Amino acid sequence: MSRASKITLAGTSLAAVAIVFFVHYGQQAEKTAMHAGVVRDMERQKVKKERQADFEMQRELEGEYRKVQTVHDGGGGGKADAGG
Predict the structure, then answer these.
(1) Calpha distance 15→71 (Å, rounded)
(2) Residue 63 to residue 67: CA distance in whole angstroms
(3) Can you tell me the distance from the alpha carbon of 76 to that of 54, in angstroms, rounded to the nearest whole number?
(4) Torsion, Cα of 11, 14, 15, 21 (10° steps)
């Protein structure tokens, strides 16, 4: 084999190994990013469920309080009579 062919073979082999490594690294990075997205979505769903549960609890409490208490619309702006 001539010197030029050896250099060409080495160069193409090195380029092929570099490309395979780069593609593998890119796939791993993409997989990690996708998994992080799934984890983020699961956390959002958990927070949403917690907020919905709190909202439902508040709604039930409001219903119970409305049964027990009389609620009036003040209409007077909340100002007390200070004409003493």
Answers:
(1) 78
(2) 6
(3) 32
(4) 180
How far is residue 24's CA from residue 46's CA, in Å, rounded to a whole number? 33
User: Is the pTM value of this prediction over 0.70?
Assistant: no
Q: How far apart are CA 15 and CA 46, in angstroms?
A: 47
| Residue 53, both tokens | 């549960």
Give, as one character, the DSSP assignment of residue 78.
T
Percentage of the chain surpassing pLDDT 90?
Answer: 71
The amino acid that residue 79 corresponds to is: K
Q: What are phi and psi of 39, to 5 degrees?
A: -60, -40
pLDDT digits (tens, 9 = 90+) for 68-78: 887 677 666 55
| Residue type, position 13, single letter | S
